[in-house]
Amino acid sequence: MEKLDTIKEKMIKLNDLTIETKGVDMSRVIERLNRIAKLKLDDFVGLSEGKFEHTIGEMFSLIKNLEGHLRHFIELSESLKGESVEVNLEKNKLAQDNDELNKKLHAIENSTPLVKDLEKKLDLAVEEVGKFRSLYKAEADKAGTMRADLDTLNSLLAKTKVERDDAYKQIVLLENTLGSSTKAAKTTNSN
Fold it and tell me: What is the pTM of this model?
């Protein structure tokens, strides 16, 4: 019901509108006018004056109604053409935006490494870390062995120093004892 009211309102507004004949097939219009001209006037003249006026009134009202519908459809057609152009422009813009986004997405996909590549790199890194840990452990074991050897050498050195000091003391003691015995023997021989 609302649509009918809207159509009636548009028809009232359109009654004073002039129609452009641009794009109208004039040959069809002339053909229709010739058909109307061929109608016999006797068909209408034989009618009573009231009936004739009524029939003419109905024809004019029908023509006016058809003219309103025609204007409405012409306006609707122009409006739809405009909307169609706008929709096509928007569609083209969206297609361009879509293409640009697809290009950006493709560039991002190409520039970022794949998950498989990252997993491979991670596995290699874990393997390298394992190698470094085992190498570190081997070096730590070697350092521990070297410390133990160094401790052994230090204790042997300390023991050797003590033995040397003891030997030196014995030499000094022997020299002193030998020196005293030699003095005593010389004094006994000189006497």
Answer: 0.33
Question: Could you tell me the CA-to-CA distances from 148 to 129, 151, 153, 157 in Å, in that order?
Answer: 28, 5, 9, 14
Round to whole Å and give the CA distance between 134 and 141. 10
> Which domain does 127 fall in, by range?
117-191
Span 132-163, pLDDT tens digits: 999 999 999 999 999 999 999 999 999 999 99
Q: Dihedral sign for Cα 173, 175, 178, 181, please.
A: negative
Pick the last residue of a domain from 88, 112, 136.
Answer: 112
Q: Return d(Cα 178, Cα 172) in angstroms, integer.
A: 10
Residues in the chain: 191
Q: Which residues touch 167 (CB under 8 Å, ≥6 apart)?
A: none
Shared-domain flag, residues 30 and 9:
yes
Greatest distance between any 2 Cα atoms in the chain: 205
